[in-house]
Specification:
The structure is a single chain. The radius of gyration is 29 Å and the shape is elongated. The protein folds into 2 domains: 233 residues, Exo-inulinase, domain 1 (Jelly Rolls, Sandwich); 144 residues, no CATH class. The protein starts with 8 loop residues before the first helix and ends with a strand. The strands form 6 sheets. Strands 1, 3, 4, 6, 9, 12, 13 and 15 form an 8-stranded antiparallel β-sheet that branches. A 5-stranded antiparallel β-sheet has the order 2-5-14-7-8. The protein is mainly β.
């Protein structure tokens, strides 16, 4: 006995309506509909002038700019394949089935950079289908993994409401989950766009962790987060390293890969600021005051070096001013912090931040002589030249105090 299905026009309309509503629902949940969506950081973002483009769709670019990890002498196993829904060739994971054995890393190494990678997940390798589980990763500095992964289990049934965990797509693996789910289905091109600042070091000691801001499919998912955990690559350290793409045994493809080396710009930003004024401790009358001016950022760093003993404790504040404040106005404000007579028309800070204990480390001190104070605080004083190192500090979202070293004179009362 055969069963016959009879679909009435009403039933067909209902099915079509349901299918249409599902498409509309998916569109409502797409990255383009998320608050703050930025098309310029989504798939297809063009490389700016001067950017490094390690893959341009050709085998020549692969051979010239990439090598295998962890063995650079291994032949490159990754494949060039046709673009799914466009012209040209794309790069496909191809190598070992065990993760971490056949990764691809740029030969050029980077410290601070902006970068972009388009990728598409295709599930199982070899069947050319977008169904199934896929896994890969983009490693910033071959240390910090931005996870690429399709949902599995119950999450695969409703990926738009997937509560992405520390091993899911967009996460810095086992460290930071994405702030927003910007999912696109397997078989559709996706993107990571990132701004990366390397950790800062004093010898073998990290004084500031690496930080990253990341957009997934044009939606910001990490905002200047600190990242400290290396997940299968080079151990965390001060060395510059390449951008790595992970082989995990599934079919994941890449295109539109570019990087802008920001190291030169960052080095310029991190130069020692202009020391405007220094007021020595006036033979024990007060602490040594040192003021640094940051003209572009409209900020002043005010430091006080304690003169009570020869350990020279240091405290500091950063004063932020309105963007209309002139350099002359900042200098007036500095003058009024130690002058007996106040100058008129002095701007006021719009914010003041106390710097944390340990922001400044005295690295050396040398006695340069002795002085006698005939005034109210009579007595002999030791003259010191004190060398100190400032650690880089993020002051809110607007200002970054650079790392630098300097010297100041301090007078300590003889015992």
């Amino acid at each position: 006995m055969k069963l016959q299905w009879i679909i009435t026009s009403g039933t067909l309309l209902a099915l079509l309506s349901l299918a249409g509503s599902n498409v509309a629902l998916a569109q409502q949940k797409s990255p383009e509909q998320k608050p703050g969506y930025d098309k310029s950081k989504d798939t297809g973002a063009k490389a700016p002038k001067g950017a490094d483009v390690p893959f341009d769709g050709s085998q020549e670019s692969i051979n010239a700019n990439w090598e295998m990890w962890p063995e650079s002498k291994m032949p490159i196993t990754w494949s060039l394949v046709d673009n799914l829904n466009g012209q040209g060739k794309v790069l496909m994971t191809n190598g070992g089935k065990r993760w971490g054995t056949h990764d691809l890393v740029t030969k050029k190494k980077y410290t601070d950079f902006e970068g972009h990678v388009d990728f598409v997940m295709m599930g199982g390798r070899g069947d050319e289908k977008a169904e199934g589980y896929a896994n890969s990763g983009v490693y910033l500095q071959n240390r910090y993994e931005l996870q690429i992964e399709s949902p599995k289990g119950k999450d695969a049934k409703d990926p738009y409401n997937w509560k992405i965990g520390p091993h899911g797509i967009g996460a810095f693996c086992m460290e930071h989950v994405p702030d927003v789910n910007a999912w696109r289905p397997n078989g559709q091109w996706q993107s990571f766009h990132f701004l990366f600042t390397a950790a800062r070091w004093e010898g073998e000691k990290a004084i500031e962790p690496a930080r990253a801001t990341v957009w997934w499919n044009g939606v910001k998912i990490h905002d200047n987060v600190p990242i400290k955990h290396a997940n299968g690559g080079v151990a965390v350290g001060p060395s510059p390293e390449g951008l790595k793409l992970q082989e995990h045994g599934q079919d994941v493809r890449f295109r539109n890969i570019w990087l802008v080396d920001r190291s030169a710009q960052q080095n310029n930003d991190m130069k020692k600021p202009k020391k405007i004024e220094i007021r020595n401790s006036m033979l024990g009358y007060r602490d040594t005051l040192v003021f640094y001016l940051f003209k572009k950022q409209r900020a002043v760093l005010a430091m006080s070096i304690n003169n009570k003993d020869e350990t020279f404790p240091v405290t500091g504040k950063v004063h932020l001013f309105d963007k209309t404040t002139t350099e002359e106005g900042l200098k007036k404000w500095i003058n009024n912090q130690h002058s007996d007579g106040l100058l008129p028309d002095v701007p006021r800070p719009i914010g003041t931040e106390n710097l944390p204990e340990g922001f400044c480390k005295v690295t050396a001190s040398k006695q340069t002589g002795t002085s006698m104070n005939p005034g109210p605080r009579q007595g002999a004083y030791k003259d010191f030249k004190v060398t100190f190192a400032i650690n880089a500090q993020n002051i809110g979202k607007r200002f970054k105090l650079p790392a630098f070293t300097d010297t100041a004179g301090v007078h300590v009362e003889g015992k």
